[in-house]
Write a structure and sequence with these properties.
Blueprint: H1 2-36, E1 37-48, E2 51-62, E3 65-75, E4 81-95, E5 98-108, E6 133-140, E7 145-150, E8 153-160
Antiparallel strand pairs: 1-2, 1-8, 2-3, 3-4, 4-5, 5-6, 6-7, 7-8
Organism: Mixta tenebrionis
Protein name: FidL
Transmembrane segments: 12-30
């Protein structure tokens, strides 16, 4: 009878240890996956010396690579509206919550009308030139979205899609 009780206790302890190990593996894998595999959509508005932009930025993070799609309009000093529509393919690495993005390709669509002299006034080099870095701290906000921080200042509120 005592041997049977010991056997049952051993089986229960083994089952509990197995469940803890399985949960730990799941937690580590899901947190790794959540920080490397997500997408979100943000509105981005910039004003600089009578030049404005209003655009949607769709970020897709997929393992070690990603893409950001920019679609919207620029309004130049003369008030003329120009379409921006381009994709930026990038590689990224993560150090804690710091995401280092490096632009690999800039792919303008046939509808993209923005001139290359105006766009640097409104967007960082990462969005306009190949092989340029951008560093963001990206935090999940707990409500289905992400906050992109540039140093200690919020840069984008990006809603999951």
């Amino acid at each position: 009878m005592v041997a049977k009780r010991e056997s049952v206790k051993y089986k229960i302890c083994a089952l509990i240890a197995l469940l803890i190990a399985a949960y730990s593996i799941f937690y580590v894998f899901s947190s790794y996956r959540n920080e490397r595999y997500f997408s979100c959509l943000a509105q981005h508005h910039v004003h600089n010396n009578n030049v404005r932009s209003n655009m949607l930025m769709r970020f897709i993070f997929n393992g070690d690579t990603g893409m950001v799609s920019l679609d919207g309009e620029f309004i130049n000093e003369q008030g003329h509206h120009k379409i921006i529509s381009r994709k930026i393919i990038f590689d990224f690495t993560i150090d804690k919550k710091n995401y280092l993005l490096n632009s690999r390709m800039i792919i303008p669509s046939v509808f993209d009308e923005i001139d290359e002299h105006t766009i640097p006034r409104l967007l960082d080099n990462f969005y306009t030139q190949e092989r340029r870095p951008a560093v963001y701290q990206i935090h999940y906000n707990g409500k289905g979205g992400y906050i992109f921080m540039n140093d200690n200042a919020p840069y984008l509120l990006c809603a999951s899609n």
